[in-house]
Amino acid sequence: MSAASRNKTQSQGGGKPNLFSGIQPSGDIHIGNYCGAIRNWLNLLDDYNCIFCIVDYHVMASNYDPKQLQKRVRAAAITNIAAGLEPGKCLLFIQSQVPEHTELTWIFNTLAPIGLLGRMTQFKEKSRNNEDNINAGLFDYPVLQAADILLYHAQAVPVGDDQVQHIEFTRDLARKFNIRFGDYFPEPKALVPKSGARIMGLDGQSKMSKSLINYIGILDTPEVIWEKLRPAFTDPARLRRTDPGDPLICNIYTLHENFSTKEEQEEVATGCRSAGIGCFDCKKKLMDNMLKVFDPIRERASELNEQPEFVDEFLAESAKAAKKQAQDTMTEVRQLTGLR
Ligand code: SF4
Fold it and tell me: Which atom of ligand 1 lies at the shortest distance from residue 269's CA?
């Protein structure tokens, strides 16, 4: 990284490096998202200038309802603020309010190898799921993602392991740009959380996902959480209360690892193996611990719903600060590429 680039990445707040993360517009954030993403972000707020962006441009690459988009964006903002992404700690803005994201995407498009884009695992998966709408935006998704990150000279990007390939692609694009136009962009690193990155769904079959309806939402009421948790899949060997089980193959135990204390985890593991605890009581204990985390978030979200000006102001101020950084980057990029 050049001295100019290094100074830029570290000069935007107390000498800390920038971190970027995109948030899909959905208020229905589930506990998999919380454990794999939000909880880790909260731990990073002190070490980085954190820039969180609700990625409405990205949504357009998949089938979506335009009438619902604003509602989804709003819900995502409220849920994430309630979970801890508060003013003063980070920026939280809406991607389309900073159109420089798409301008940089076009410039990166002229460097992005189509062979590499076609090999992206997410593109292949999404193409299978969107067979009626395999559009250029879907193909180009990693380029927009690279622009999202590099527009802010982010050096760190917290992602799940399924997104590491896209960060590698971003690094590759940064390198290509630097070779072609001069050393300018940093090569960001992927921050993959050690735990919680892969929470299975309540069916125990696949990753927790909204579309598979196998999830618990972090704003779900205690009644709804219990309705979902009570019949959730456990170790199939525990047909009767007296049958011993193996916690290591049970998703409920994985959730205990995310929400219960070490002592409680040991109690559950021993009780499961000796049939000293039943699955019903094990799930009750888990639910009590989850509610300690989610009750305050649900209450805060409900307050924020009554404070639209607070949410509007945070989003607007964040967009203003992000736009300033984005404009500075684009001024320099235009000069480097010969546009101005
Ligand atoms: S006791 Fe708990 S960890 Fe063991 S199988 Fe039942 S739910 Fe899973």
Answer: 3
